Amino acid sequence: MALREVVRSKSRRELLSELITFVLTLILSSFLLRFMWNRSLVPHISALKPIGNLADAFLLSMSLSVLKCC
Questions:
Q1: Mean of the per-residue pLDDT values of the chain
Q2: Sequential DSSP letters for 3-59
Q3: Domain tally for the chain?
Q4: Domain range for residue 55?
Q5: How many angstroms separate the CA atoms of 54 and 34, rounded?
Q6: 0.85 exceeded by pTM
Q7: For the chain, is the Cβ count within 10 Å smaller at the N or the C terminus?
Q8: What is the pLDDT of residues 19-29, one digit of tens each?
Q9: Dihedral of the alpha carbons of 10, 13, 15, 16, in degrees to the nearest 10
Q10: C-alpha distances in Å from residue 59, one per residue of 15, 18, 30, 65, 70
Q11: How many Å apart are CA 19 and CA 6, to the nearest integer?
């Protein structure tokens, strides 16, 4: 959804603004996913392991997005 706004931007300044917003949203959602995964799911489901870094959280987020689309 946010990627559409980046593609449709009319000026260079608007493009930069949309791109920064997209990246910040991505980082924030990855951090939030990592926090919620480690604090909520890991203690209650013994098969799950904690997420160690934001790259793993980002990959998990992308995987969940793909599954959500199917």
A1: 82
A2: HHHHHT--SHHHHHHHHHHHHHHHHHHHHHHHHHIIIIITTT-TT-----SHHHHHH
A3: 1
A4: 2-69
A5: 7
A6: no
A7: C
A8: 888 788 888 88
A9: 180
A10: 25, 22, 9, 10, 17
A11: 6
